[in-house]
Amino acid sequence: MEIKNYLSKERIHYTVTLKEGKGKSIQLWEHIDGMNRHYKNQIGSVFTWRAEIIRLFLDKLVIKYQQDVKVTVLKRQMILDTDGIGIIHLDKSQWNSDYRLPEEMAMKMLFAIKLVSSMEQRPRIEEALEIINSLTDEEISFWAWKVLSLKNAALNAFKAMYL
After folding, report:
1. Percentage of residues of the chain with pLDDT beyond 90
2. Which of 20, 12, 42 shows the shortest CA–CA distance to 97?
3. pLDDT digits (tens, 9 = 90+) for 53-86
4. What is the pTM of this model?
5. 128 neighbors 119 (Cβ within 8 angstroms)
6. Rg for the chain, CA atoms, rounded
7. 70: β partners
């Protein structure tokens, strides 16, 4: 019997689900591999035209990730879908698919989903997503933590500072 290290980072991962049916939706999931069972928690979702904007944002994040991997010496290993296609080879995200994301990308998606859900004007949303894309991992971690703990107050603070 193999003993598992339940404190390792591999025990938690994030996926994004793109669904198209009656309406389009995107959901961000947190997966936790516990000692007795696997937990799957939805931590963000958007619908209709906001889902399309977030899908385009995801494509930009993937392109940026691919460029970073080409520049970095470190090899990163990612798994997408169940058929084993890597994020490194992803050209464009497809509806009705699940994608496993690295933690940094998942935090950007989380913050983007929460921010987009609180905004109405499409040009401001696109401007906000460009700002989110340009933020460092440390800044994204800070804002994601603030949004999860303070909710609307953190979103309003971000809008006041950057928009």
Report:
1. 55
2. 20
3. 999 999 999 888 888 877 665 554 444 433 434 5
4. 0.82
5. yes
6. 16
7. none
